[in-house]
Amino acid sequence: MSDSNHLFDSLPYYDNDLDQFPGLREKVDREFAREAKPPAALHPRVPPPIALFEKNPLLKAELERVESHQPFPRLDTLRYQLPAPPTPGSDEEWKNALKNAQAQLEHQRIRQTNLQLLQTYGSNAWRIHNYLLENTVKQTEKALEEMKELTVEVNRERKNTQTRLGKELNSLETRWTELISNVLQIELANSALDAEVNRLNKREAELAELAR
């Protein structure tokens, strides 16, 4: 901003031509309407979107469900039921029912083990998880505040620079107007002097003719 080699062809913080000339805003709006629409494709330097959960189809499907605002599917409770085979049932049907009952029993045993582990270690793990989340939130909020302060500082510096340059341009424009006015006055004075010289020369020639 401080380099004198920079070219400032627009001072949005200082220029107020659109407010001074109402008809100018209509012309600008017409020019914007004539411009081509921005391309739908992103700039080549913009990185491609990150594909999440490519190696985990279950999480990927769940993410797609949440993004599409689909309701959460109802739990399948059929596998937790113990339907008895029809009476009279065949040996194969009774064997399948027995396998289902054993699977349900094993499932309940695993759930009981998980609940015991959760009661023993779950609270500490949850506290650690919350602590890590709080630390991440603090770091993110700090980074956000620093970015906001940097943005405000950049805009403040830009506004001060443009205000200074705008005043300097107005001063130069006023000085230019004064110089142009002085030049015009000098040209008018020169024209008046030329006319007066021509008149005197003509008068001198007339007097010379009379002296003869």
Automatic annotation (TrEMBL):
Upper lineage: Eukaryota, Fungi, Dikarya, Basidiomycota, Agaricomycotina
Coiled-coil ranges (or none): 91-164
One Pfam match: BCAS2
Record has Iron-sulfur as a keyword: no
Main localization, broad class: nucleus
Localization, UniProt: Nucleus
Record's protein name: Pre-mRNA splicing factor
Family membership noted in the UniProt record: Belongs to the SPF27 family.
Keywords, comma-separated and alphabetical: Coiled coil, mRNA processing, mRNA splicing, Nucleus, Spliceosome
Species the sequence originates in: Mycena chlorophos
InterPro entries: SPF27
Domain of life: Eukaryota
